[in-house]
Amino acid sequence: MDIMNKARVKSPWVLHFNCGSCNGCDIEILAALAPRFDVERFGIINIGNPKQADVLLVTGPANRRNFRVLKNLYDQMPETKVVIVVGSCGSTGGVFYNCPNVLGGVDKVVPVDVYVPGCAARPEQIIDGFILGLQKLAEKGKKKVEGR
Ligand code: SF4
Fold first, then answer.
1. Which of 104, 138, 103, 133 is nearest to 116 (CA)?
2. How many structural domains compose the chain?
3. Which domain holds residue 103?
4. Residue 89 CA, ligand 1 centroid: distance in Å
5. For the CA of 96, the nearest atom of ligand 1
6. Residue 17, domain member (yes or no)
C-alpha cells in the first residue's frame, strides 16, 4: 500500500451532500460527528470542498432538480473515491419513490459503493457504513497502485 493510500484510509475527508432528503438522516450524521459517537476519533473529517474529499456521503434521493449538482460534485472529487448513501430514500427512492420529480436512488446518477439502510439510519449504522466504505477505499487504492 503506498503512502497516499494509507493516509487516505487513516484520515478520510468526507463531503456531505443533502440531495433532497427530509433532513432526518442528516441529523443522524451530525449525531455521528458529535461527541457521543465522535467519528472524528477515526480521523474522519467533514469538509466542504469536493476537490479535497475522499468520501462522498449522500442523503436523499436523486431528483430532476439537483442530479447535475450531484454528478458535478462527484466528478470534481479526485481518484480514489467512494460514495456512501445514507438512508432508504438515497438507496432506492424510499418514501419519495415514484414522486414525479424523483429519479430514484443516488445510483441512478453516480456509482454507489455502500448503502446504509434505515429511515432514518442510526449513527451506529452510519459508522458501520463508514468502516465498509474505508475498506472499499483501501481496495480501490490498492488496485490503482497495482495498475489494475
Ligand atoms: S431515509 Fe427517511 S429519514 Fe432519511 S432522509 Fe430519507 S425520508 Fe428522511
1. 133
2. 1
3. 3-141
4. 6
5. 7
6. yes
